[in-house]
Write a structure and sequence with these properties.
two-stranded antiparallel ribbon; about 30% helix; Rossmann fold
Amino acid sequence: MSEPFLKGYRALDLTGLSGQMSGRILADLGMEVVKIEPPGGDPVRNLAPFITSANGQKLSTTFAHLNAGKASKVLDLSKEADRAALRKLVETADVVVESSQPGELAAKGLDYKSLAQINPGIVMASITGFGQTGPKKNLACNDLVALAESGFLYISGDPSSAGDARTYHSSLGQRATNRQARRQPARIGGARENISVQRWFRLSLRDAPALEVIFIRLEGSSRHVRRAGLA
């Protein structure tokens, strides 16, 4: 049996609900994915439905589904010491996936421009509701908003049925392999991919299926670098 497609690559997952399926797909493809969580755990851990483990601990099946196959590291990015720890991880990473509001990481010195100075080959995927620029860039966006703004609600369902959040997870932030993944990836210079939830919902109406989106541009030279261990 051949090795997993993305074995030897590492991704740092800084996403919230909107991007965690992206990291799950990368992990399923063999990439080492490290979920960065704040103290107290990722907020998605508080989402139902829940199961109770043998020791009585309540576990979110939503979080487990979206983050299966990932490692976890707790960092408080409001503190400089932990921001420095993240920069150290970036030195040996290939991909960073994040879903912060536009400008939030730049204010902490963790935007693509800053991270590319540490690792020029880093690929950064930024997932927002309406992109990094424009009049709507700072608006909050969830699955209902994205479905409405993209036109999905207009063509879907009936007055008696609710929407389906699976579309949200399957469409966001996923652009890693449909085009580039047809050949064994190898990394050259860095890149930043800006993913607007509203835009990708709209494009998936035209270029279905929605899973055509997963982000990552790991192409170029024939070098395949395998990383081992966390920095």
